[in-house]
Design goal:
- By secondary structure, the chain is of the alpha/beta class.
- The chain folds into 2 domains: about 160 residues, 3-Layer(aba) Sandwich (Rossmann fold), CATH 3.40.50.1000; about 100 residues, Hypothetical Protein, Haloacid Dehalogenase-like Hydrolase, Chain: A, domain 2 (2-Layer Sandwich), CATH 3.30.1240.
- The protein has 9 helices and 14 strands.
- It is globular, with a radius of gyration of 18 Å.
- About 45% of the residues are buried.
Length: about 270
């Protein structure tokens, strides 16, 4: 494990955050220590940028040289200003094409921007409610797609697991001709630009910062972390990670509830 690590990228849910969706205290101390030493610390998450403001604040990652990969790599933003360094937004034609697949399925459409989760239903389903509670962001409606002022990072189909399974099995191949899809939660299917994805954005951020991928450590637990774990010079999976994520990793650390991130950082940086 004799690696010259210059950048540490960390997933949030299931990795940095405990099962209660709060930051495990030991992780805060470990991250502040390496950040103070000049190591770049990057959050890499499926959450919208302002769906984890409190994490950046608690970790002290609020500088103009601090960055986050958010919305499963649809955007890279400067933490201080929220300015997009890399962006892969979906437009109105994407929205019309993607939602045309719904037809006879009992699923709802969620539209994710920097600050707002959009859902036009009178009563939102449990899938959407869960994401809203996790991200602590407002829900709004729109009459026309052009009314949405912020750029759209991703569009989600949300609903019961069985209904989503049925939809995904039938439409996955057609959707993936034009888009990236990600099923990281049983209740939600993410649809993004093909140029999105955490791994693609990790590459772009490293180019922007002039850091070699060999000098990157990446921590994750989910399906949307696998390619980044493979890409990084040092890929670390959590003990609570999915089996395919562990198989992709160089190391497996303790679980998210056991401060596995801090445990590994302490070994890595002595």
């Amino acid at each position: 494990m004799n690696k010259d690590i210059k950048l540490v990228a960390i997933d949030l849910d299931g990795t940095l955050l405990g099962s209660d969706r709060e930051i495990v205290e030991k992780n805060i101390d470990a991250i502040k220590k390496i950040h103070d030493k000049g190591i770049k610390v990057v959050i890499a998450t499926g959450r919208c940028f302002n769906g984890f403001w409190w994490v950046r604040q608690a970790l002290g990652l609020e500088g103009f040289d601090d960055y986050s990969i958010c919305n499963t790599g649809a955007f890279i933003r400067c933490n201080a200003s929220g300015k997009a360094i890399v962006e892969n937004p979906l437009d109105k034609s994407d929205y019309e094409k993607i939602t045309s697949y719904l037809k006879d399925y009992d699923l709802q459409v969620g539209i994710f921007t920097k600050d707002v989760l959009y859902n036009n239903e009178e009563v939102v389903n449990n899938g959407f409610k869960t994401d809203q509670e996790v991200m602590r962001l407002p829900r709004q409606k729109f009459k026309d797609f052009d009314d949405i002022e912020e750029k759209v990072a991703r569009i989600n189909f949300m609903g019961d697991e069985d209904e989503l399974d049925k939809f995904y099995e039938k439409n996955k191949e057609a959707l993936e001709k034009d888009y990236m899809t990600m099923r990281n939660e049983t209740y939600s299917l993410e649809i993004l630009k093909k140029s999105s994805g955490k791994a693609n954005s990790l590459k772009k951020l490293c180019e922007f910062l002039d850091i070699d991928l060999e000098n990157v450590a990446y921590f994750g637990d989910g399906a949307n972390d696998i390619e980044s774990i493979k890409l990084a010079g040092l890929g670390i999976a959590m003990a609570n990670a999915k089996e395919e994520t562990k198989e992709a990793a160089d190391y497996v650390t303790s679980s998210n509830d056991e401060a596995g991130v801090a445990e590994f950082l302490e070994k890595l940086f002595d």
